[in-house]
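User: Some background: our group keeps a shared notebook of sequences we're curious about, and every so often someone picks one and asks for a predicted structure to add to the entry. Today it's my turn. The entry only has the sequence so far, pasted here. Could you supply the structure so I can complete it?
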Amino acid sequence: MGDERELYTLKTIAETLNRSTDLKPMLQAVLEDLLSVTGLNTGWIFLSTDKNKFTCEADVRLPAALAQDEKEPMCKGTCWCLNKYWDGRLNQAVNIIECKRLEDAVHFKTGDTEGLTHHATVPLTAAGESFGVLNVGSPGKESFSNDELTLLESVAFQIGTAIKRIQLYQDEQNRAENYLKLETLTRESWRHECADDLISAIVHRTGELFNWPLVGYFSKNKLNDVLHSIYKNGKLSVVNEAYSKETLQEINEAVQNEKPVALKKNTFPLHPKPSNIHAIEVKIRDEHIGILFVFEESFSKSDREILRAVADHLALAIEQSRVNEKRQELILSEERNRLARDLHDSVSQKLFSLSMTARGARNILTMPNALSDALQDIQQLSQEAMQEMRTLIWQLRPVGIEAGLMTSLKTYAIGLGLSPTCDVSGFKLLPRPIEEALFRIGQESLNNIHKHAGVDEVSLYLQITEKEVCLTIFDKGSGFNQDAVGDFNLGLRGMKERASLLGGTLSIDSKRKNGTKVQVRLPI
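Assistant: Of course. Here's the predicted structure to add to the notebook entry:
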């Protein structure tokens, strides 16, 4: 083949390659042009980036034996050219390879090979990457000259370069589309203030927007990681189920190595079929709070970037949710303090003035007994109202709780006129929500003893372990009939609700004339 012919071939191929940014049509067109200018009859292109996985992306004039059943012989099985390519032994154009697919067709008499027995094989490479192989041949042709092989290598290099260019272009397109989807995800997720709702919403929209078959989030836990929620088969499920670290070995490995890990255990509870796990650790500063993971066979570099961006955004959103919760607590605390100040400065002062006025009037005036008794009643009622007002102010603003839960409850009990006996077992710094819930439940219990028990003595016992805290309040007073009262009493129902909100339990054991025991258990 002359130099002029070779230049013409390369020019034709280059023009074809430059006209398209869509891979499959480009490969089909360039293969047709190559056969046209070289006078060869048949050709096909296999693309393969993973061993034992390939696709026939283009073909021209396949013999009937290879084209039958919608080209099934070209879409499965192995052959010598692909095996050499996967083994790294196909580094240049190979003069002639006897085609195993054609030999099988002859041997098993599955169709007419139309005289085609051999083909040349050329690897498609560019910039150190391999993309597949180009096969060309003609009926009766059993050898290619060195010039022909050199031309095929030049064409194959052009095709490989074009494949790389298109892949880069498609990666950029996918990256742009993904970041638009990420913007949508970010905008929608900020509508949720509760951390649990936020996590579920991000898991759901991540799987939905990026079309990943399974997306999930594990919350980190000292003992067992908790699967918070998963998006699978188009549906979101809030799970809240604990899994052992042994069960999650592949997910933890994917996090530590920062690369996909093949899931081989068919016993994995979330995804019974083998797949690839892609997992990113979710962190707030240096605090490990969870793992965002995806099950997906094919995962590009752009997909990995997006998953990391989603994980970073999730961390920021969870941190913002925590800040909002703290802010709400501060706002509520400040409002309680304001109400306590207003009650102290206005109502309490007026009640005190009323009590003093009634007392003074009784001392300086000569009056009928009925009027004197009325003034005495006014004085007594105002003093009782002042006592109740001080109790209400204490409930709004439990001054002294910073000194410790038992110290605060003891001080509160003494303020009610009770004689408390306190005992503490174990030591651990309790989270503020748990400490405040125990204080409020203790307050209500002491109020009930003050109003209904008919005794002054009360025992308080606080037991703290690694996993839970238990507060017991016991008196030997008059007790009550639990069957008659049930949970209809507002105070008792409120105590149980406080315990339930923190995942705990509250039990009340009381009988007439046998005292009452209130016990609350909260997990730490």
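Suggested note for the entry: Residues 3-171 form a domain with the Beta-Lactamase fold (CATH 3.30.450.40). The chain has 14 helices and 16 strands.
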